[in-house]
């Protein structure tokens, strides 16, 4: 019966429906044998939750490049230069498309999409002919278009249109935040990724535009309120105009304004430049904190961070450490959890002393492990790179580096890596620790995982990797590392080549099986060829060095690659003036012995010619050995005697005969 | 085909002969044999239209022509625009048909290009094409390119 009347009841007011539900649950209860079913509450999902759930099932594929690059062998970048060039080229293509759209806006005014997508309409240009009112200004401020807002404001004031104080304040906030200039638009992801590092190098340089629009706007306000003061102080402190910020702060204090919390934070930061010496700086901080206390403004995370920033600039380490711990403890009382930026400052404070090692990083990692981190301060992005640097130079421990790395890899924490520069510094340090402290197996595990799609080693790191291959005598890796060196375009780096060839020549063990030997011999040949090719093309400017060639000869002979070895000898002979240094004595001896053993007379002659010109010391023995051990035809003997000179030859022959007899 | 079927039902004996006569004169979307037999065809070109969905796919993938589909005519025009735009922008670089796939509001454009210009230039063109087409069609556009060393790589047969 109830079922029948349900549709009717449902149509009635909501109350009846609820009553009905209550009634139906009451009816059902007894039939369930006393076990009640608890229906979980509905979880509100956003429209993209299902996509997130799907994407969480996928892991990073170490054999695929970043998805911003096209998945095609020709289009995948293999060196740092290419990575940057390709990503920026694509963006520059996008930029030129936008330029065309903005040059011809009348062609792009059609409205196809429904609902309309603002982003795809050409940019509105504001000039005198436009119908302007305050709402337009509000809109441009909302979209944080700095230069547009400034033009609209100017046009409005030209026309004598009054704007409300709220909008004025919003405009002031905008121009103070962006220092009166347009930031790189959010659309240009690659440009931001590759230029942020340059920006930060300007750190602590006063970049505030003193004749900018922000100052102008502030001066037009007849009686600035506490909010106005707060905004401009924050803006100035953000762009390191500390003197003026501090003056304005004092002015505001005299007027007995209660500023916003972030303005006080900025005022604390001014201590970096305004005050000198640790004591004065600390007094300055205390003064402002007291002021905040009197006015009943509670501290927040940024207060903590700005105090720590000031502490990093102090020179007396013992006291700063004490102060820093005090501040953290104070913040704990307010239930303020330090963010990555705070930890970054702590690392700077505690680990700047090279003699006194501090293990504060371990404590920090204990706090961070397993957490999903979100950005709370702009400096948060500096934490991971500094932590890895700390592991490398300060603690010199791979275990801790691995912990840092695993925190970076959990959840979405990788978003906090910062930009391309920080990322590469991070991995540079990571690989340095690996190379210096860990086994070659572990190194190669990470190498295969991260190189080349995430990180491409810089020449110095490649050298370190080659070094660790050398010390581990992992000859099977030489061909891989060489092809990688070629791929990364680092074959022109002399230290790498010297290290590689030296290592190869040292790690030749007679116990190797024949195929491995041959492989090595071939590899030495290809190394010679590809470097030679690059030298001819003018890519490598520096000349060959004799010892590198000597090492290559050693490896070639070891791998029975006599053709290449004699080619190198020929190269040495013909280009004596262009090659710096000569191969080792041992190399020449080895070459002779090899030729004698295998009966390669022509190759031996080449080597002899060369060594005669260079003037090797032990040549006599070698020649006599040649004569005695090799079965020579009269013509060959003739050749030999021509080269060494007849008398010399006779003498040696006599010697040889006497040795035999 | 329906016409031929009906005919076949009416004149069962002559049907095969008729079909033969009819199909002999069909020439739409078929390539003519060249005199020397050296005209290169790609895989897509080699199959006549009735092999679509048997040995080759469609060039446009969308649901506009289904029952209650939206904007069928506009989509066809847009597709033609995209094809012309791409062959013009990627001048002398496209070595295959341009496949246009629509899913929700995304248009994915696939093609095979020849490695004639430097990679940076290619990336520039990718960025440019994607951006300007999204401004024109007001939806996200994605290019899915594959590259081949030269045009002979995509030749399926010579006729």
UniProtKB/TrEMBL annotation, chain A:
<dbReference type="GO" id="GO:0005739">
    <property type="term" value="C:mitochondrion"/>
</dbReference>
<dbReference type="GO" id="GO:0005840">
    <property type="term" value="C:ribosome"/>
</dbReference>
<dbReference type="GO" id="GO:0043024">
    <property type="term" value="F:ribosomal small subunit binding"/>
</dbReference>
<keyword id="KW-0810">Translation regulation</keyword>
<dbReference type="GO" id="GO:0006417">
    <property type="term" value="P:regulation of translation"/>
</dbReference>
<dbReference type="GO" id="GO:0032543">
    <property type="term" value="P:mitochondrial translation"/>
</dbReference>
<keyword id="KW-0496">Mitochondrion</keyword>
<protein>
    <recommendedName>
        <fullName>Small ribosomal subunit protein mS39</fullName>
    </recommendedName>
</protein>
<feature type="repeat" description="PPR">
    <location>
        <begin position="225"/>
        <end position="259"/>
    </location>
</feature>
<keyword id="KW-0699">rRNA-binding</keyword>
<dbReference type="Pfam" id="PF22330">
    <property type="entry name" value="Rib_mS39_PPR"/>
</dbReference>
<comment type="similarity">
    <text>Belongs to the mitochondrion-specific ribosomal protein mS39 family.</text>
</comment>
<dbReference type="InterPro" id="IPR055063">
    <property type="entry name" value="Rib_mS39_PPR"/>
</dbReference>
<dbReference type="InterPro" id="IPR037387">
    <property type="entry name" value="PTCD3"/>
</dbReference>
<keyword id="KW-0694">RNA-binding</keyword>
<dbReference type="InterPro" id="IPR011990">
    <property type="entry name" value="TPR-like_helical_dom_sf"/>
</dbReference>
<keyword id="KW-0689">Ribosomal protein</keyword>
<dbReference type="GO" id="GO:0019843">
    <property type="term" value="F:rRNA binding"/>
</dbReference>
<dbReference type="InterPro" id="IPR002885">
    <property type="entry name" value="PPR_rpt"/>
</dbReference>
<keyword id="KW-0687">Ribonucleoprotein</keyword>
<keyword id="KW-0677">Repeat</keyword>
<dbReference type="GO" id="GO:1990904">
    <property type="term" value="C:ribonucleoprotein complex"/>
</dbReference>
Automatic annotation (TrEMBL), chain B:
<keyword id="KW-0687">Ribonucleoprotein</keyword>
<dbReference type="GO" id="GO:1990904">
    <property type="term" value="C:ribonucleoprotein complex"/>
</dbReference>
<dbReference type="GO" id="GO:0005840">
    <property type="term" value="C:ribosome"/>
</dbReference>
<keyword id="KW-0809">Transit peptide</keyword>
<keyword id="KW-0689">Ribosomal protein</keyword>
<protein>
    <submittedName>
        <fullName>28S ribosomal protein S24, mitochondrial</fullName>
    </submittedName>
</protein>
<dbReference type="Pfam" id="PF14955">
    <property type="entry name" value="MRP-S24"/>
</dbReference>
<dbReference type="InterPro" id="IPR026146">
    <property type="entry name" value="Ribosomal_uS3m"/>
</dbReference>
<dbReference type="GO" id="GO:0005739">
    <property type="term" value="C:mitochondrion"/>
</dbReference>
<comment type="similarity">
    <text>Belongs to the universal ribosomal protein uS3 family.</text>
</comment>
<keyword id="KW-0496">Mitochondrion</keyword>
<dbReference type="GO" id="GO:0006412">
    <property type="term" value="P:translation"/>
</dbReference>
């Amino acid at each position: 019966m109830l079922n029948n009347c349900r549709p009717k009841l449902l149509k009635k007011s909501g109350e009846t429906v609820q009553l009905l539900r209550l009634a139906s649950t009451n009816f059902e209860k007894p039939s369930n044998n006393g076990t009640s079913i608890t229906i979980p509450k509905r979880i509100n999902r956003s429209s993209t939750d299902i996509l997130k759930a799907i994407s969480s099932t996928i892991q990073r594929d170490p054999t695929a490049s970043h998805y911003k690059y096209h998945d095609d062998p020709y289009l995948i970048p293999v060196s740092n230069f290419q990575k940057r060039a390709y990503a920026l080229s694509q963006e520059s293509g996008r930029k030129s498309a936008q330029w065309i759209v903005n040059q011809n806006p009348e062609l792009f005014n059609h409205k196809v999409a429904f609902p309309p997508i603002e982003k795809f309409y050409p940019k509105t240009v504001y000039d005198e002919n436009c119908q302007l009112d305050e709402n337009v200004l509000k809109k441009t401020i909302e979209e944080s278009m700095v230069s547009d807002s400034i033009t609209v404001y100017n046009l409005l004031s030209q026309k004598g249109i009054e704007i409300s104080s709220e909008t004025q304040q919003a405009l002031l906030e905008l121009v103070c935040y962006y220092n009166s200039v347009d930031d790189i638009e959010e659309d240009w992801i690659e440009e931001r990724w590759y230029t942020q590092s340059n920006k930060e190098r300007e750190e602590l340089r006063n970049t505030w535009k003193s004749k900018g629009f922000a100052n102008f706007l502030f001066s037009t306000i007849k009686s600035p309120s506490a909010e106005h003061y707060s905004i401009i102080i924050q803006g100035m402190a953000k762009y390191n105009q500390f003197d003026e910020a501090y003056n304005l702060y004092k002015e505001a204090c005299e007027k007995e304004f209660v500023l916003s919390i972030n303005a006080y934070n900025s005022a604390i930061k001014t201590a970096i430049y305004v005050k000198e010496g640790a004591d004065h700086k600390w007094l300055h901080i205390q003064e402002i904190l007291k002021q905040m206390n009197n006015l009943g403004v509670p501290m927040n995370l940024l207060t903590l961070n700005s105090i720590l920033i000031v502490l990093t600039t102090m020179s007396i380490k013992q006291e700063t450490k004490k102060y820093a711990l005090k501040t953290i403890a104070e913040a704990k009382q307010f239930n303020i959890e330090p963010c990555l930026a705070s930890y970054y400052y702590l690392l700077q404070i505690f680990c700047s002393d090279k003699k006194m090692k501090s293990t504060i990083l371990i404590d920090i990692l204990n706090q961070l492990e397993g957490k999903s981190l979100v950005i709370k301060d702009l400096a948060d992005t500096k934490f991971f790179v500094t932590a890895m640097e700390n592991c490398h130079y300060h603690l010199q421990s791979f275990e801790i580096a691995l912990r840092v790395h695993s925190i970076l890899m959990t959840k979405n924490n990788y978003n906090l890596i910062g930009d391309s520069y920080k990322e590469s510094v991070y991995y540079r340090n990571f690989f340095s620790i690996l190379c210096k402290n860990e086994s070659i197996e572990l190194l190669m595990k990470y190498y295969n995982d991260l190189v080349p799609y995430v990180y491409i080693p810089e020449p110095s790191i490649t050298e370190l990797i080659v070094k660790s291959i050398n010390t581990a005598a992992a000859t099977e890796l030489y061909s891989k590392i060489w092809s990688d060196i070629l791929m990364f375009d680092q074959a022109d780096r002399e230290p790498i080549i010297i290290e590689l060839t030296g290592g190869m020549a040292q790690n030749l063990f007679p116990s190797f099986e024949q195929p491995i030997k041959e492989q090595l011999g071939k590899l030495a040949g290809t190394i010679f060829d590809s470097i030679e090719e690059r030298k001819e093309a003018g890519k490598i400017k520096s000349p060959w060095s004799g010892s590198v060639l000597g090492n290559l000869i050693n490896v070639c002979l070891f791998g029975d690659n006599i053709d290449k070895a004699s080619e190198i000898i020929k190269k040495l002979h013909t280009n004596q003036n262009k090659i710096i240094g000569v191969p080792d004595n041992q190399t020449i001896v080895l070459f002779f012995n090899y030729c004698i053993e295998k009966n390669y007379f022509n190759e031996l002659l080449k080597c002899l010619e060369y060594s005669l010109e260079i003037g090797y010391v032990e040549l006599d023995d070698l020649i006599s050995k040649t004569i005695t051990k090799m079965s020579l035809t009269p013509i060959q003997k003739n050749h030999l005697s021509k080269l060494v000179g007849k008398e010399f030859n006779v003498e040696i022959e006599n010697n040889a005969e006497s040795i035999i007899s | 085909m329906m016409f031929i079927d009906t005919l076949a039902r009416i004149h069962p004996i002559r049907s095969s002969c008729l079909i033969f006569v009819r199909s002999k004169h069909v020439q739409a979307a078929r390539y003519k044999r060249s005199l020397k037999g050296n005209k290169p065809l790609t895989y897509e070109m080699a199959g006549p239209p009735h092999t679509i969905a048997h040995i080759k796919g469609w060039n446009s993938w969308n649901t506009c022509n289904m029952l209650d589909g939206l904007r069928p005519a506009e989509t066809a025009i847009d597709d033609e625009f995209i094809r012309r735009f791409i062959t013009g922008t990627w001048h002398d670089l496209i070595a295959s048909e341009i496949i246009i796939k629509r899913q929700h509001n995304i248009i994915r454009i696939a093609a095979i290009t020849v490695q004639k210009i430097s990679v940076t230039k290619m990336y520039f063109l990718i960025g440019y094409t994607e951006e300007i087409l999204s401004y024109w069609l007001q939806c996200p556009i994605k290019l899915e390119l594959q590259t081949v060393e030269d045009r002979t790589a995509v030749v399926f047969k010579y006729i």
